[in-house]
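pls design
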């Protein structure tokens, strides 16, 4: 679409060439010549943005941008949500393949020694490598890339839309369409009933040799480093970057935009609400800390009632 047409559809002001043609949305890290980049903070401004087709932002940040097309909105995040839905093309309805006994979309490619169970659905433009095993009732959404020697457990869903929403002036939620996908590297094992969301613009990535237990949720834009192991019922929120060779215990919760170092061990049921910058064993609820520190803290917690009684006696 041309920029003028887009500006009208998303209710944004346009500075620049109204006839400039746009075919996609891209991230600030990888701007495309025919794409729109959404900028919400000053720290995202860089010279590389000049190669973007256009920039969507607010009026204050627009004053700092020159020599490129600009879309200006009073509510840029809400406008970005509308923009993503313009470019969110639906997958075709997968058709049952009588020869292979699987529901396949268009342009699906798979390598040798590909095996699958009952009720498997694979949408458009999915790429699957060699020696891949997919169990019953798995759904793989459009544009997902799966490497060699990958195992996927029953009931798992890969490439579903992420949980990105913006409120409008009436406090109604507007969904952000997720235009990225999921990339699964070689030698990955995924358990049953996991859900792995597609990225907003870039891909969610599972690195080489990652192993996932059952019932794990991985949100949009998460990157998991190679040979990381994650136990059951872990939830990883959006845009986290998990290091290499991490071991994450069951029922751990990791809040959004967290980065962990390589060779980190996180004890079961811990909550991770800040970056982990050094390797080691970590345990905690709030805040997370080194495991050795947590053991000392836990010891004092068990003695709080005795300490309180002692202080009360001394006060009397």
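designed seq:
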């Amino acid at each position: 679409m041309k920029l003028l047409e887009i500006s009208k559809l998303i209710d944004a002001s346009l500075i620049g060439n109204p006839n400039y043609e746009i075919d996609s949305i891209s991230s600030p890290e990888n701007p495309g010549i025919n794409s729109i980049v959404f900028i919400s903070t000053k720290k995202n401004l860089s010279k590389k943005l000049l190669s973007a087709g256009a920039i969507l932002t607010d009026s204050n940040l627009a004053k700092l941008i020159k020599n490129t097309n600009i879309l200006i909105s009073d509510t840029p995040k809400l406008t970005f949500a509308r923009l993503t839905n313009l470019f969110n093309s639906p997958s075709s309805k997968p058709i049952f393949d009588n020869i292979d006994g699987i529901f396949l979309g268009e342009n699906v490619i798979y390598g040798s020694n590909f095996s699958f169970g009952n009720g498997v659905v694979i949408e458009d433009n999915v790429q699957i490598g060699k020696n891949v095993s997919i169990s019953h009732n798995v759904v793989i959404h459009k544009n997902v890339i799966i490497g060699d020697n990958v195992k996927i457990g029953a009931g798992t869903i890969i490439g579903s839309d992420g949980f990105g929403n913006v409120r409008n002036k009436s406090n109604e939620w507007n969904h952000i369409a997720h235009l990225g996908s999921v990339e699964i590297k070689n030698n990955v094992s995924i358990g049953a009933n996991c859900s792995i969301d597609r990225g907003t613009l870039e891909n969610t990535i599972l690195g080489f040799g990652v192993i996932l237990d059952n019932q794990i949720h991985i949100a949009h834009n998460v990157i998991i480093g190679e040979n990381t192991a994650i136990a059951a019922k872990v939830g990883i929120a959006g845009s986290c970057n998990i290091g290499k060779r991490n071991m994450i215990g069951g029922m751990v919760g990791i809040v959004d935009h967290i980065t962990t170092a390589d060779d980190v061990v996180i004890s079961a049921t811990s909550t991770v609400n800040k970056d982990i910058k050094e390797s080691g064993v970590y345990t905690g609820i709030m805040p997370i800390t080194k495991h050795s520190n947590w053991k000392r803290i836990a010891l004092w917690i068990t003695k709080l009632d005795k300490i309180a009684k002692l202080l009360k006696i001394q006060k009397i």
